[in-house]
Amino acid sequence: MRGAPPAAEYLFKHALVQDTAYSTLLRGPRQALHRRIAEALEQRFPDLVQTRPEILAHHFGEATMPEKAIAYWHLAGKSSVAKSAVREATAQLRRGLSLLDGLPETRERKQLDLDIHVTFTTALMAGKGFANPEVVSTLERANRLVTETGATGTPVHFFVLWGLWISNHDAGAIAAALEHATNFLSSAQSQSSSGPLLVGHRILAWSLMPSGDYRAALAHFETAASLYRPEEHRDSAFRYGQDIGVSVFVQLSWALWHRGYPDQSARAADRALAYSRQLGYAHTLAFALGLAGVAAVFARDAATACAYGNDCVALASEHGCVSACKFDP
């Protein structure tokens, strides 16, 4: 026992003792105990619900209450993504998705399936890269669910469209990526929110870069930069892989360099790094360091390029977001 009642914690002296005691319980009583524990935590410890939702997910799962377990695994996954704990997020979301198979095919189940797939895609992109086969298959599943749930034109739909664009772009399918970007911007122009429009201009600009159309790319980047509002678009890091403002400014630095504005290019990269450090989101910062490092290569600034590269690798390795340091100029 640790501490004094009623705040005391009771622990087994050895995991084998715990396993032996647990195995002696019959299935019915064991499930009932898990349910009582989960419901007690839910009702009496609201702070724990927010900070350790995976505990409730485990107990509701063992109590054979899949709807509750799935909801808490999803909450745990979202919390882990927000903390840049990519490996943990992936494992938690897999647990939630595995339980979905046992639920009846209802509209509510499909909506939950879509929501989890969106969060799962974000975690997979950070951990495995945008063009990874599992990322692509997850996006394809999410795209079908968008249609089946009537989510066309919603923020979730734009995330899926963005995912299909970036997976093609990073796979080197430049023509397909350009088509996806053009379609994204066309759809975004009918939206009242500025977020999709900002993203549309950014991804079209980035898609124009490989073909050497830097003039058009710069124009779209500048439009995207003019639309960026940090407070309004703060949640974008969890919707589009990285903060969209950071992405705009660090990619703008490339376009400025290629248009012959080296000083402006350096300032744009510095602005992206400053934003990303303020946000404190590891994948966004690693992404910015990687692209800013390439911009330093353009400027033949070897010391800065090496420093940014080392910082990017260290940060990405620590948080499991290794894809943030892989780029295709």
Contiguous helical run count:
16
**Element string (H = helix, E = strand):** HHHHHHHHHHHHHHHH
Classification by helices and strands: mainly alpha
Distance between the termini: 58 Å
Question: In terms of per-residue confidence, which ranges show pLDDT below 50 for 5 or more consecutive residues?
Answer: none
Number of strands: 0
What is the share of helical residues? Answer: over 70%
Largest sheet: none
Which whole number gives the mean pLDDT? 89
Shape, please? elongated
Taken as a percent bin, the fraction of beta residues is under 5%
- Rg over alpha carbons: 23 Å
Structure commentary:
- This protein has 16 helices and no strands.
- With 329 residues, it is mainly alpha-helical.
- The chain has helices spanning 15-23, 27-44, 46-51, 53-62, 66-82, 86-100, 107-128, 133-148, 155-170, 174-188, 194-208, 214-227, 244-258, 262-279, 282-298, 302-319.
- The chain is 73% helix and 0% strand.
Overview features:
329 residues, 16 helices
Helices and strands, with pairings:
Elements: H1 15-23, H2 27-44, H3 46-51, H4 53-62, H5 66-82, H6 86-100, H7 107-128, H8 133-148, H9 155-170, H10 174-188, H11 194-208, H12 214-227, H13 244-258, H14 262-279, H15 282-298, H16 302-319
Helix pairs in contact: 2-4, 4-5, 5-6, 5-7, 6-7, 7-8, 8-9, 9-10, 9-11, 10-11, 11-12, 11-13, 12-13, 13-14, 13-15, 14-15, 15-16
